[in-house]
From TrEMBL:
Residue ranges of every copy of the DUF6664 domain listed in the record: 6-110
InterPro entries per UniProt: DUF6664 (IPR046605)
Record Pfam families: DUF6664 (PF20369)
Full protein name: DUF6664 domain-containing protein
Amino acid sequence: MVPDEFKFETFVEAQGTAMQEYLSGVVAKLSKTDKAYRAIQDKIESIYRQYPHVMGMFDTEKVVALNEQECAAAIEVVGLQNQLVELEMQSVYFRGCYDSVGYLQKAGIL
């Protein structure tokens, strides 16, 4: 058992909302700086324009009946959203690595 004086806060607990703001800032820049990310967003928007019920499925808590084409479009949107999340996670990871090296250099460790 660990005595109370030896309990450590995690970085996220210690910084409160700072971590969430950091992550949001990195992700917010993606649509402006990453062409692949923007292309996926554009494809999702195109599907929503073509199949408005699909967007309704994601934006409301109501039951939405979809036809066969709309179901296929919804599956495509979910796949595209997964690609966006993957790009976001990759961007956050590499930004964190970049920032960590910078902090270590400023601290004189590297």
